[in-house]
Structure prediction request, 712 residues.
Amino acid sequence: MTPTQPRLWQLDSGPISVVLQSTNTTDIPAIVWIGKRLNEQLSINSVAALTDLPLPMAKLDNTVPQTVFPQSSTGTESSAALRGHRDGAFFAHRFACSNVEQHKQTLTIHLTDDAAELGATVHLQLHDKTGMLSINTTLTNHGASVYQVDWLASASIAINRDFSECLYLHGRWGYEFQQQRQKISPGHLLLENTRGRTSHELYPGVVVGETGFSEQKGYLLAAQLAWSGSHRTLIERLGDGRLGMQSGIALDSGELRLSPGEHFTTPALHIIAANGLNQASQAMHCFARQEILPIWSRTIRPIHTNSWEALYFDHDTKKLFDLIDSAAALGAERFVLDDGWFPARRSDNAGLGDWTVDQSVYPQGLHPIVEHTRNAGLQFGLWFEPEMVNPDSDLYRAHPEWVLHHKPYVTPLARFQLVLNLDLPEVQEYLYSQIAALVEEYKIDYIKWDFNRDLLLAGDGYSGKMHKQAPGCYRLMDRLNTAFPTLEIESCASGGARADWGILKYTGRVWTSDSIDAIDRATIQRGYSIFNPPEIMGAHVGHEHAHLTGRSIDIHTQAIVALQGQLGFEIDARHITTDEAATLRHYVTLYKHHRSWISESLSYRLDSEPDQLCCCGLVASDRSTSLWFAVATGSISTTAPGKLMPLGLINDQLYTVKIVSDNVDHFRKFSKHVPRWLTDGATATGETLMNIGITLPIMPVQSALLVDISAQ
Prediction:
């Protein structure tokens, strides 16, 4: 093989093809196509001719392709995949491709820089069925001195230069996963989260696509980083119009130093090409179910009841017994004892880290509560916040050196707490032994694992350790998963601040938001569903007046929105009316009837008019049945009705349409006549339903309805 011989690699799987090429044997490959499957095996000569770049004036004397590992020393306009140095030297790099290995739909690209004494490996895998492309990078220090890494991209990809819009998820506590759009203009669009948690302010996922791409149309790429810490994604339009994207861990200064012989592997960036957001979501949901989530997440998902909003820190045994019994009577199947069961925990300013049962509140331990829960027919779950510690705790008084800190600065408190350094073996051992002892003693079925503050000054006193925290959490969860295979863990982080594909390998449920205001939840859950499947989304019915927003919301609306995920109660079941109890039992029956197929469902978000109408649906994988949700998040015209346009049905299949939310009478108050299907039902083919749609009643603000469309 001569040094000037071009090379081509083609990966085909499911609906997707990925094509890479290099101009000679030592050049780093560049991605020239990610997208719709190509029905031919490409010729290197034709691809090389079609993608050959012109050489403009006032530029370098050679053209530089957008490789999978761009580097500044080659003159590329793309941002470098690696930035680092050896005590100021070797600030630039010149890697060459030493070997490319292809095994079926996996490609491993080996790179070396002999002068800088570095090696890099870019690993690409195109997964069967879903067509998901996963890319990560390993950097190895072959030198005799320490190499300081300032930035190492998990993946650097060239994308369609015609893409002009970017969608990402931003938000805040109590209002996570809000969709944002930006035009991709010349220059850099930097999406960076340095808070040590992934999801409140900026989820580690992004969609880039054609102008005006929507739920149903528009070619696009969706990508997300499987990582639970600080992260950055860079989308850049080069001066010549080419477009590229990088994603990886956002590192603190000086925190990633590779000793001689040491290597570091990035988390994977997962990428899917699709026509419309729904198609992308369905592929990502399928991939998460097959490749990411724990096996137990595929089992029937029980209905939760949680003590938090009912009792907060008031752990009175009689009140808890009554709460458990009342929730069981509504159909709950799992009771979770929330914050407040350990010593000094009468408020949130003390006790974190001392994971033993408070004998002053529970003189017999948790046994009476656990026994009462099981006698009521419910599983038992317990709240923990293992990664945190209050300064007012026995643990902190004994081991102040165990917290993340940076001398000589004082770390600001958040919720009166600091963060434990999970990279320390002694911290790992302490937390595992404390949690495992309680799981073993009480045969705990489920842990609600909370994480209530951002990371700040995240070091061991001298050096940054931010990037060590997420792997430390993974190790601890993995050890518990291994020791207790039936134990389920939920990822809660002040709500949805850690709902990424890194943590979901070890957890099979996400507490999507601390706000269970159903109107806010409609958009929170809509954004969440772009990247994550519905059955792992904790969605609860709360009190009439939402505790976070104070908004008064009808119990039907609350239940309908909660049915989009894994149903539960935050409401105090001891103090509801007979009518409210009957209403909740109605929706519990609906959930139990449908939940077996929801775990494999196809999720559809509808492009609805007007904007205040939020519509979505869940369709069984065999298209035989489906549930459709319509929520009036704002004021809609009192004369012009909205329309529900279902998707994903079989054209020539006959379907029955009926309202299954128990609130038809509510809509009668707002018009002289309601559409006939609300009272009599309707029958039509899938083709008719998907093209003509279903006229909705006049929907007052904050109302919702639930429609069942099932094959006859």
Remarks:
- Residues 213 and 276 are 6 Å apart (CA to CA).
- The chain has a mean pLDDT of 95.
- The two ends are 64 Å apart (CA to CA).
